[in-house]
Specification:
The protein is an alpha/beta fold. It has two helices and eight strands; from the N terminus they run E-E-E-H-E-E-E-H-E-E. The longest helix has 16 residues, at 99-114.
């Protein structure tokens, strides 16, 4: 799984002209699911996301979690994070999980995150417009792939 985490002052996702998810202070997270991902990766990344210390404390050091600042999550499914352009100019998505399985794992990931924090989500498989005000800007890429 891959996450692109952006610390935001606000963010929203729109489908067909209607806002389907909207948050204030928190993280807007693009979520990519690879073909071999399981609930192990989802569990690990849910925990990692909530434990990230990228909000500033009183000394202006990144030392607070999203829960410390009463933040929110906007989770947006993004299969193009697994786009591979190493051999061509047109991306190959062969490393992305197939849609039905990916949607199931995305839903699991959203539920796991929502156990501890307010979560809004994008619509899986839809053409979405995402708007955000990046704070910092702070953007991180976090990945987890288990290898047996």
């Amino acid at each position: 799984m891959k996450l692109v985490v952006q610390r935001v002052d606000n963010a929203s996702v729109e489908v067909d002209g209607e806002i389907v998810g909207e948050i204030n202070k928190g993280y807007m997270v693009l979520v990519g699911i690879g073909c071999n991902d399981t609930t192990r990766e989802a569990d690990y990344l849910a925990s990692k996301l909530l434990k990230l210390r990228i909000f500033e404390d009183e000394d202006e050091r990144m030392n607070k979690t999203i829960q410390d600042v009463d933040g929110q999550l906007l989770l947006v499914p993004q299969f193009t994070l697994y786009g591979d352009v190493s051999h061509n100019n047109r991306p190959s998505f062969s490393k992305a999980m197939k849609p039905n399985s990916a949607e199931e794992l995305f839903d699991y990931y959203c539920k796991k995150c929502s156990e501890n924090i307010h979560v809004e989500i994008g619509v899986f498989g839809a053409m979405m417009s995402v708007s955000l005000t990046n704070n910092g800007p702070v953007t991180l890429i976090i990945e987890k792939e288990y290898k047996d």
